[in-house]
Write a structure and sequence with these properties.
The chain has 764 residues and is α+β, with helices and mostly antiparallel strands. Helices cover 27% and strands 25% of the residues. A hairpin with a 5-residue loop joins strand 28 and strand 29 (634-644). The radius of gyration is 27 Å and the shape is globular. The termini are far apart.
Length: 764
């Protein structure tokens, strides 16, 4: 490998750091209508009357749209493959409002001052209904969030709107109850994770216009351009052929932009007026009406014998979908399947879940996609079991978790997939060495009321969605011998344009600069399901491998034809096609130039790829914290992470992915908390109330790789994007326990919870 496994600079690095106009708002600077929303002040209400007459008379106001002006076809805004496993439970504008911030009216005008005034002039008479804010009471509650008769689900996911069920399921392997009878030690606890906001730097934003052919053109900061096209088609009741979606550079997504959020409203304005329109969410709107991580309550039963052999696991996940289904039915599955699979030696497992509606902001996709919540709960339970057994928690894991010795075995909790690669045991061993676990576990006093302690966790994720995700790639040989790589995958700052180019350059044996890569345009790009589920390197990467191998064959064939030599007697070294028998050769430059002339063949190749498996990457995370027992303050002293993501395509970009994911995980563990008041209004609507960690909040983050080789992946690679967020919460909770003897089972881990827990322990 000449380019793969090298830390080459991102292709767009200089454009980004020098402030080139590459983002949605940079490239849509022409005259366009400004779009804003009048949002519901109530968590649950019906619009009885709405009067826009006075607002429409204001200068600069182009149109005001209400539910009377919007299509009435229900849809889901979850960017997922068709048929979507999320209920069709949403309208662009609805008479029934299901959470604070639900859109009541769309206002479009030529200046913000006039629009803001118009929003105040719209008069709405609401019938305020009783809200259902506590999701733990949603199932079979008399307050129905979705009483509509046209509620539907294209997939059988256990949805029942008359029971406030967005999704429900149960699965079991072996006889769990019988196994628990044989367990001498059982942990049974409930863990709670709050909703978290992705807080990407670039908020939601979209520009829409009608082109010369009467088609709706959409430029949007999205992770899923092709899904946006389908969702807009469903919602606007127009054919997909009438919609073009273009994705420029994205200023972060982390899953938030795997849903249609800002696209609907300017699109409807443009369809009604024929004029360009732009909507840019404020930071407050991104907080209050984005698509955050789902709040979850997870009950764990975990049983073992006296030697620490885990015999049975039972997980029940209760998921708060919020007002709409979105990604609720799909994120919840990962909370069990991605967590329990780590302990593949169990004799029996059971996984139940309910995803319920409530009158709070709906949840969407967030890095980790449900596995994060489930791994927090199960890893905490494993640490509690280790305490009960008086066993080192790393030894308990080594005894029970997936290791390289289980390669070739089926994983029943992971849809019966076969484990092809695993260095999780090597990851944990190396992480222990890096942090000096044997000398620091469980804690040591370092000063008056100051204790330093360590905690650990392991995690797994997936690489795309098996039998669902598709990646397609086209590559073209241009004059003078450079290549154009057309991809449908979305680079949202992760560097996938660079990584995919590295793969192409290695197979075609050329310099990286010889590969020109283009962003996504649904009119021009080959189809790709989008950048989510850690699918790009694994799924689209294999499409690149297949496409570039096809390109090599075509270059060989054309070179042989031009040399008048049988193709089996020539070879290609990236620069020339040459004879294996004499000194005849022809340069790639000449082949390319000839291919554009007369009877010769323009050379292009395209292949697609899907995978029947989703090979898991693995990670061990070990943290050292310092706890002030007087105040409960927790400081992160050192965090070490060792990751098995298969072959590392670009070490620098991979390391940055790990570091960023760990920081987000630390935020979830210690700071971030989406909260509502008694009326369902969000109280954490800015960075003043919603803290995310800065670099000053963490001293050291150290990352290493223990690479296995995944035979089904490109160059042996697996994914890395999501696995990296999963270990901080349980590892930090474990370290806090080792310092204080307080088990905090509800995130975030705050100073108040620690101090109150220590006081409760004293009373006992």
């Amino acid at each position: 490998m000449k380019v793969v496994n090298k830390s080459v600079r991102k292709k767009d690095a200089m454009s980004l750091v020098t402030g080139k106009p590459v983002y949605t708002d940079d490239i849509t600077t022409g005259s366009s209508l400004i779009v804003k929303l009048l949002r519901s002040p109530h968590a649950h209400a019906l619009v009885e009357e709405i009067n826009t007459d006075r607002a429409l008379k204001l200068p600069g106001i182009e149109c005001i749209l209400t539910y009377k002006d919007a299509p009435q076809s229900r849809f889901t805004n979850a960017g997922q493959s068709f048929p979507e496993p999320s209920p069709y439970d949403r309208l662009i504008l609805d008479k029934r409002l299901r959470c604070v911030g639900d859109p009541v009216a769309i206002v479009a005008g030529w200046d913000e001052k006039s629009i803001d005034k118009a929003l105040r002039f719209i008069k709405v008479k609401y019938q305020v209904l009783e809200p259902l804010l506590d999701f733990t009471k949603s199932k079979d509650n008399e307050v129905l969030i979705h009483p509509e008769e046209d509620f539907k689900s294209l997939v059988d996911i256990g949805a029942d709107n008359n029971r406030n069920l967005c999704s429900s399921e149960s699965c079991e392997y072996g006889d769990v109850e019988e196994q628990f009878k044989n367990c001498t030690h059982i942990i049974e606890e409930t863990y709670h994770t709050q909703a978290n906001s992705q807080t990407m730097m670039e908020t939601f934003r979209t520009h829409t216009s009608i082109d010369a052919y009467g088609r709706l053109n959409v430029i949007s900061s999205t992770q899923v351009p092709f899904h946006v096209r389908r969702i807009l088609s469903n919602a606007l009741e127009i054919p997909k052929s009438k919609i073009r979606v273009i994705k420029p550079r994205i200023g972060g997504g982390f899953g938030a932009k795997q849903s249609v959020v800002s696209e609907l409203y300017p699109a409807l304005v443009t369809m009604k007026t024929g004029k360009p329109a732009k909507m840019i969410y404020t930071r407050k709107e991104s907080f209050t009406n984005g698509s955050p991580r789902h709040e979850a309550q997870i009950t764990i039963r975990l049983g073992s014998d006296d030697d620490g052999n885990i015999k049975a696991i039972h997980m029940y996940s209760l998921w708060n979908a919020g007002a709409y289904g979105d990604h609720g039915p799909t994120t919840v599955g990962l909370s069990g399947h991605k967590a329990m699979t780590i302990y593949n030696k169990v004799n029996a497992f059971k996984f139940d879940f309910d995803v319920v509606y409530s009158n709070t902001m709906w949840g969407g996709a967030y890095r980790g996609y449900g596995a994060t919540q489930g791994i927090f709960a199960l890893e905490c339970a494993v640490n509690e079991l280790a305490t009960k057994l008086n066993m080192d928690p790393t030894e308990l894991r080594m005894k029970n978790m997936l290791t390289h010795e289980q390669v070739g075995n089926k994983m029943p909790a992971y849809y019966n997939e076969v484990l092809n690669s695993c260095h999780l045991d090597k990851c944990l061993i190396k992480a222990k060495e890096m942090i000096d676990w044997d000398n620091k576990y469980p804690y040591r006093e370092v000063g008056k009321d100051k204790i330093r302690s360590v905690g650990c966790a392991v995690a797994m994720q997936g690489s795309g969605i098996s039998n669902v995700d598709v990646g397609a790639v086209e590559i073209r040989l241009n004059d003078d011998g450079f290549y154009t790589l057309m991809i449908g995958a979305t680079d949202m700052g992760t560097g996938c344009d660079t990584i995919l180019s590295q793969m192409a350059a290695d197979i075609l044996e050329c310099d990286l600069e010889n590969i020109v890569v283009h962003g996504v345009d649904t009119d021009l790009s080959p189809y790709d399901t989008g950048s989510y589920a850690s699918s790009t390197t694994y799924i689209t990467g294999m499409a690149v491998v297949k496409t570039c191998k096809s390109m090599r064959e075509k270059i060989l064939s054309e070179g042989a034809r031009l040399l008048k030599i049988p193709v089996e007697k020539v070879e290609f070294d990236g620069k020339n096609v040459f004879s294996l028998e004499d000194d005849k050769s022809i340069s790639l430059k000449d082949i390319a130039n000839f291919s554009l002339v007369g009877e010769n063949n323009y050379i292009t190749a395209s292949e697609s790829h899907y995978s029947p498996t989703s090979p898991p990457p693995f990670m061990a995370g070990v943290v050292e914290v310092e706890v002030d027992k007087l105040t409960g303050k927790v400081d992160i002293i050192d965090y070490v992470a060792v990751v098995d993501c298969g072959t590392v395509i670009n070490p620098n970009l991979s390391r940055i992915q790990v570091e960023g994911g760990i920081m987000q995980g630390i935020g979830m563990a210690l700071y971030e908390d989406v909260t509502h008041d008694k009326k369902g209004r969000l109280t954490s609507s800015s960075f003043l109330q919603y803290k995310i960690p800065s670099r000053l909040d963490v001293k050291d983050i150290r990352v290493e790789f223990e690479s296995s080789y995944e035979p089904t992946g490109p160059f042996g690679a697996k994914s890395i994007g999501e696995i990296v967020i999963n270990t901080p919460s349980p590892a930090i909770a474990h370290a806090v326990y080792n310092a204080t003897q307080v088990n905090i089972r509800q995130l975030p881990i705050t100073s108040e919870k620690i101090v109150m827990g220590m006081l409760e322990n004293k009373k006992k």
